[in-house]
Amino acid sequence: MNAPRHHGGVPEFEEYVSARHGALLRTARRLVHDPLDAQDLLQVALIRTYLHWDRIADKQLADAYLRRVMINARTEWWRARKLQEVPTEQLPDASVDDSTEQHADRALLMDIMKTLTPNQRRVVVLRHWEQMSTEETAAALGMAAGTVKSTLHRALDRLRQELQRRDPDSASVTPAGRCWPPAGRRAR
């Protein structure tokens, strides 16, 4: 591997990683469902970002840059693995504090997320879990804002249909047919 081209950015990069590691790992876990794969994905993304740290003029955009690197790396992995599906048994564990109902909801949500295309999943993760704006999501994914909106609309419809198919009496679906985002998710 090539040696880094910069020397002064190492402490700055280390501070960034220390401050953002938890959030970046959560993003990686949403992009790949296996916790060990998520750690590997984040490690690859951090290495690639470190090698180009001096090219990021506005360090406030480092999260978006790193997310893009994670998405690209994950796409490379999927192509190499020929898009193998992750078995349901390998869903991320819920924290100890979660109630049984929250754990079941999270497991169901992670399972129905698998029905989305990779592109739809990326948009949902960035818009709803990462709380990125439409414009930020578009920039991170290299697509137009209108494409983000239409992709999100189709993804939410697909999630809604899959939830209703699995649980026709679901109380999560409002009279307007909305089941997304899960209750309390936007108020993080």
Automatic annotation (TrEMBL):
Pfam families: Sigma70_r2, Sigma70_r4_2. Residues 108-159 form the RNA polymerase sigma factor 70 region 4 type domain. Residues 19-82 form the RNA polymerase sigma-70 region domain. InterPro entries: RNA_pol_sigma-70-like, RNA_pol_sigma-70_dom, RNA_pol_sigma-E_actinobac, RNA_pol_sigma70_ECF_CS, RNA_pol_sigma70_r2, RNA_pol_sigma70_r4_t2, RNA_pol_sigma_r2, RNA_pol_sigma_r3/r4-like. One of its GO terms (biological process) is DNA-templated transcription initiation. Residues 163-188 are annotated as: Disordered. Keywords: DNA-binding, Sigma factor, Transcription, Transcription regulation. One of its GO terms (molecular function) is sigma factor activity. The keyword Transcription applies. It comes from the Bacteria. PROSITE patterns: SIGMA70_ECF. NCBIfam families: SigE-fam_strep, sigma70-ECF. Belongs to the sigma-70 factor family. ECF subfamily. This is RNA polymerase sigma factor. It comes from Streptomyces sp. R39.
